Amino acid sequence: MKGDRVEIVVDAGNTSQTYDIVASRAGSKVEITHGRGLVEVTEVTRSGTPVRRARFLANRVLALVEHPAADSV
Length: 73
Fold this sequence. Notes:
Layout: E1 5-12, E2 15-22, E3 29-35, E4 38-44, E5 50-57, E6 61-67
Antiparallel strand pairs: 1-2, 1-6, 3-4, 4-5
C-alpha cells in the first residue's frame, strides 16, 4: 500500500550504502524476493505490473528492513 518502504543496507567495500524503495503511488506495494544469490525489491501496482526494481547481490546485503505504511483509521 502507499507508504510501504523497504530500507536496504549494502556493503560497498570500506563503507556501506543505504537504499530506500518506497511505494509512492496509491495502490502500489513493495515486494521482496530472494534466490540464486540475488535480493530483488520491486514496487508493483495493483495489477502486478512492476513500476521500479532494484537488485542486489545477496552476499553484499547487510540489512533489509521493511517499514509497513501506517494504517489510516
